[in-house]
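User: I've been trying to design a sequence by hand for this structure and keep getting stuck. Would you show me what you'd pick, starting by listing the structure so we're on the same page?

Assistant: Good idea, let's start from the same input. This is the structure you sent:
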């Protein structure tokens, strides 16, 4: 099994008042910071990979500066489970415009298993006009578009889950120590990008 993830952050667009008339960001014209955006994407993507495929054994990352302020980064990692790998590529495109109700960014993800593939094609943007979820199994392909797929819903559900756990004195699905571990993963990827060395992780 493996996961392949991709994220593009544009220098323009986002916060579309037609798509999201009830929300206005505090600083519409602020340019994204590459390092902060890169670390945030690392944390979110590594969190998903950890929850889906388990602890990560080692990782490697590199970044590239391009003319005009564009930046790209690629991160690959190996899980402790044998034969399970994942990757993420991240790009900051300062001259691109992405239509979105939130940040000017686009995400997609591909999960490949022994019997098929799942594609997640929509996160916060309107870059692609297609159903959010696609499934390929055997010779059949299915598409699912009637889903609660607004990007902000994930954050709302996290807040609701945390509040319920506090009220009912229960543990959250993701334990605090797991979040700390994933922060360590993300920090290790940043360090790998700086040094060019593969980093083995302690779990």
């Amino acid at each position: 099994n493996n996961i392949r993830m991709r994220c593009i952050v544009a220098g323009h667009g986002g916060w579309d008042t037609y798509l999201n008339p009830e929300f206005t960001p505090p600083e519409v014209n602020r340019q994204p910071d590459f390092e902060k955006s890169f670390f945030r994407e690392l944390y979110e993507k590594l969190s998903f990979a950890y929850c889906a495929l388990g602890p990560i054994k080692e990782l490697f990352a590199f970044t590239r500066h391009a003319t005009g302020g564009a930046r790209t980064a690629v991160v690959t990692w190996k899980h402790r489970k044998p034969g399970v790998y994942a990757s993420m590529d991240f790009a900051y495109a300062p001259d691109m415009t992405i239509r979105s109700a939130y940040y000017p960014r686009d995400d997609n993800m591909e999960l490949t298993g022994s019997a098929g593939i799942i594609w997640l094609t929509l996160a916060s943007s309107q870059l692609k006009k297609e159903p959010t979820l696609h499934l390929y199994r055997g010779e059949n392909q299915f598409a699912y578009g009637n889903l609660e797929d607004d990007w902000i819903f994930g954050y709302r559900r996290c807040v609701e889950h945390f509040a319920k756990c506090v009220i009912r004195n229960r543990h959250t699905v993701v334990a605090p120590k797991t979040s700390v571990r994933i922060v360590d993963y993300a920090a290790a990827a940043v360090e790998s990008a700086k040094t060019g060395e593969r980093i083995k992780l302690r779990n």
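That's my pick for every position. To get oriented when you compare it with your attempt: Residues 9 and 93 are 6 Å apart (CA to CA). Residues 34-53 form the longest helix (20 residues).
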